[in-house]
Amino acid sequence: MKRRAIAIWVAAGVLAAAGFFGGCTRDPNVRKQKYYESGMRYFEKEKYREAAIQFQNALLVDQTFGDAHYQLAQCHLKLGNWADAYKSLLRATDVSPQNTKAQLDLGNVLLAARQFQQAQEKAQLVLQKEPNNAEAHILLANALAALENLPGSLMEMQKAIELAPDRPRSYLNLAYLQLSAQQADAAEGNFKKAIALDPKSVHAYLALGNFYQMQRRWTDAEQQFRAAQRTAPNDHMPVAALARLFAIQGNRAQAEQVLMQAKGALAENPEGYRLLADFYFSLGDMDKAEAEFDALRKAYPNDQRTKKNYIQILILRGRLEEATALNNEVLKQSPKDAEALIHRGQVLNIQGRPNDAITVLEAALKSEPENPVAHFHLGKSYSMVGNLARAESSWREAVRIRPNMPAAQHALAEVALRKGDADLLRQTGEQLIAAEPYSPSGYVMRGTALIAKRDLAAGEADLRRATEVAPNQPLGFSRLGGFRAAQGRFAEAEKLYEQALKNDPNFYEALQGLCNVYILQKQHPRAIQRATLQVSIAPQNSFHHLILGQLLTQAKEFEKAEAALQKSVELHRNNIDAFALLGQVQHARGTVDKAVASYQRFIQENPKDPRPYILLGSLEESRGNWQRAMQLYERALQVHPDNPLAANNLAYLMIEHGGNSDVALTLAQTARRALPNSTNVADTLAWVYYHKGAYGLAIGLLQDAIKNEEKNATFHYHLGLAYQKNNDLGKARTHLRRALELEPNSPGTADYRKALAAVGGQ
């Protein structure tokens, strides 16, 4: 009993002491201040995540603590969490409207988010209280420039310099504005002034070097980039700029040399040792990019960025199983890692599982709502399931966040082309031009839009501009070649396509266009000869072999076509067009077993891709093996439950061969939702309705199908039968006779005649 009493007494004493010594921490003002001071110490040591936790602790004590909101925003800005930074700055200005730093930071975040009018309002709010605030004049200048008020912008920037004449950053800002106003000489002077004020500013040297690069003053640009390199030998940015300069001039070997040297010199800087791999990737040299990233991930096993880049390359090369295995390692460690979730979504899209991809990509956006790559791939998923409105919305969101994202801009361009919306295409092009004035893509888009609106001179000028701003890239030459081909100026088109292929031997769009020029001139052998030559120049390009295979197939040289297509699928195991044509060629050669083997090989290498099951199912269906075809369509639906092609084909076979009509109806409706404009899908659903006795519904669907495809005998046959059941014998005879006219000697002719006789026709 004594021991127990002593223990209680000691515990009571400890509690009493704790109450005595800790009494002061019960004061909320003291507690929040301690958290705040701890956060500041972490912040000064650049430990921003730890600092953020402490500022959040302070805010748990007092939600109106304006300084804590502001410093939390600074942490988010340092960490690149722009959405969270915006929220914290908004709260900081709510509770402390007199905090001009918070108001200005919020204005700059709004500016970065392209909310230019709101950014202008923030600058003006500060200037009402502090007319001589140089930072506010700078913010207002940038906002006015974005709103295309260049005179007002230049005036505000001059005021900022008058108020603070010793700030190098102000001269850089003024120089950029002068460039926008076409005042190149004045801009050059201000770039130099910034360097004079701060000779150790890497940013200033790079800015002047980029200016010279824009002016094509290559030697001057190189001098500035090398000066930046001497100023900051451990910084990767000067090295990247120097390599880019050499690459723009077409001197790839010198660019590679610079980056190889940097790989050793910057071995402790992840951004530095990855430069060479990034360079290969940017050039589309996937073999070297893959090898370099593979070596780096092994040399730096803790570098998640390198691992993720390698995963992306594996996805692009169709090596989905390897990519998935590595990506699962990332997700096991960080289940909410947005980039890893995006990679998973990409793989699911490629495998034809867009509904699964939508779920994964939406999870990625919960982690990072402002991730443009997630929005882009989500748009692809929605496009695959036929929800084009949601697809367009996702792509628009991607370009809102990152206006210079070419993939999203190109996706919007495809939307514009599909909708025949030249205005949207032009707008997309202009946004890309503004973001990347030295990229050919924007000029190509705008030029295409102008040509569509019959402004041929302006459209041609844009296509020419694309070749001028990027003389070493293929896109502008290829698209201008297409324009010339459409005009019938084949000799010029040929030269332009050849220049595109000289710039990039792997640019298969140019090879396709060049071969089409020969086909239009009825020079099929010459097209085959040219494709064969390009295959020898770029033998690892799967799509070049595919183009050659297509040409050989058209020429009925099936043996050679098969060899070309075999090579195509060896190089790119996910090249569905090559696999599909390979099977058709083998079928045409009478080697159906080889065609089956090709599709089975595709299934083995891509077991979670529904497409090979559908291809093989169609082949089995064509040779009368409908039971096997149904099994394959069912397998495709196990992989991708909402695949519209598999659902449509299975529904048709089920209803044709006495299957469950309710299941067939569900499958046909699934296909119809995904492919509402497909006449074949409409026919399948109508045929199911016919067998379920819903003749009116069947008639409506078939009438619409025939409007779009009037010469389809099967549609007329089905519509004739539906009219017969609906007791409209006159219309039944009309459509059954039309079926016979269209296919007087087909395998279905006997059925057509029998049905026509049943309604009193001949």
Written account of the structure:
- This protein is mainly α.
- The chain has 45 helices and no strands.
- α17 packs antiparallel against α18 (286-299), α32 (524-537) packs antiparallel against α33 and α33 packs parallel to α35 (576-588).
- The longest helix is centred in the N-terminal third of the chain and has 20 residues, at 2-21.
- The radius of gyration is 33 Å and the shape is globular.
- Mean pLDDT is 86; it is low at 1-24.
Features:
45 helices; mainly alpha; 762 residues
Element layout with pairings:
Blueprint: H1 2-21, H2 28-44, H3 48-61, H4 66-79, H5 82-95, H6 100-112, H7 116-129, H8 134-146, H9 150-163, H10 168-180, H11 184-197, H12 202-214, H13 218-231, H14 236-248, H15 252-265, H16 270-273, H17 275-283, H18 286-299, H19 304-316, H20 320-333, H21 338-350, H22 354-367, H23 372-384, H24 388-401, H25 406-419, H26 422-435, H27 440-452, H28 456-469, H29 475-486, H30 490-503, H31 508-520, H32 524-537, H33 542-554, H34 558-571, H35 576-588, H36 592-605, H37 610-622, H38 626-639, H39 644-656, H40 661-674, H41 679-691, H42 695-708, H43 713-725, H44 729-742, H45 749-758
Helix pairs in contact: 2-3, 2-4, 3-4, 4-5, 5-6, 6-7, 6-8, 7-8, 8-9, 9-10, 10-11, 11-12, 12-13, 12-14, 13-14, 14-15, 17-18, 18-19, 19-20, 19-21, 20-21, 21-22, 21-23, 22-23, 23-24, 24-25, 25-26, 26-27, 27-28, 28-29, 29-30, 29-31, 30-31, 31-32, 32-33, 33-34, 33-35, 34-35, 35-36, 35-37, ...
